[in-house]
Amino acid sequence: MNETRLGIVGLGVMGTRMLNVAVGHPDFTVVRASDITPADPGVPFTTNADDVVSASDVDAVYIATPPKFHADLAVAALRAGKAVFCEKPLAVSLRDGQRMLDAATESGLANAVNFALSDRDAVRHIAGQDLGTVRGVDIRLQFPRWPRGWQASATWLAGREQGGFVREVLSHFVYLTDRLAGPPEPVWTTVDYQGDGSEVAARGLLRAGDVPVHVSAMAELSGPELYEWIIWGTRRSFLLRNWAQLFVSEEGGQWQPVAVSDHGSEATRLSLFAQAIRGTATPDLADFASGWRVQRAIEAFHGF
């Protein structure tokens, strides 16, 4: 099987992580990488992203820049005949998100958004269960500090223009809701900001068809970092805590742990992207269409 020649744009935390995975991945050969900061990543490097997205020796592009740059890069790559794997959120402007979706649809090429929960074993387990009638979804997030320590170098995350935990983290759980309960439409949303920075609190009610989706998220507080997503069914309910810990409640009982593997990573999602390039899409990899639905819900918190 021929390896796909991959170009990587953006070598921050996620771009570097994906580069390290892709270099040893059996489905890909990393032929180019770019970042605005000069670097020596061990593959041909440029500070000009256009040299990657337009290169004749690149078959697919992974985009890991700050989100306001996603649209121009993705549209250029798709129009140049290259499949695109993009970090989330899809974009911060609804117009840009629509441009990306339109370009992907028109090109017919493989397109994907890197939602970390898309192929987690816990999520795939829930998808295969009979919940009965779904009565609701609850999303609760809390961050003692924002940005989180490991993101300190990504200074844009602390800003209001394209950062904040609503776009960076809540989007993962809105994606999960979209996948397992249906497309979430905003009913009401509210956000509190701290000075000129990103949000410190976000609350809202979304509705996935007949299913109410309650959101409560806070930052800059005394308390543990926490990620919880609950889907309430009449037959059984599931709690996903801190990305990978899964619990089930049946017949009104207490939460009981569910044994699931650690499956789901940049490596496995790269494999699914390679599969999509070969013409076989999978629900375990988010595409631009699902990324666009998530973006519409997320940007409602910011009044767009």
UniProtKB/TrEMBL annotation:
Pfam families according to UniProt: GFO_IDH_MocA (PF01408), GFO_IDH_MocA_C3 (PF22725)
InterPro entries: Gfo/Idh/MocA-like_OxRdtase_N, Gfo/Idh/MocA_oxidrdct_glycsds, GFO_IDH_MocA-like_dom, NAD(P)-bd_dom_sf
UniProt keyword terms in alphabetical order: Oxidoreductase
UniProt keyword annotation of Oxidoreductase present: yes
Residues covered by the GFO/IDH/MocA-like oxidoreductase domain: 123-237
Domain Gfo/Idh/MocA-like oxidoreductase N-terminal as annotated: residue spans: 5-114
Gene3D superfamilies: Dihydrodipicolinate Reductase, domain 2, NAD(P)-binding Rossmann-like Domain
SUPFAM superfamilies reported for this sequence: Glyceraldehyde-3-phosphate dehydrogenase-like, C-terminal domain (SSF55347), NAD(P)-binding Rossmann-fold domains (SSF51735)
Protein name in the entry: NAD-dependent oxidoreductase
Record organism: Kibdelosporangium persicum
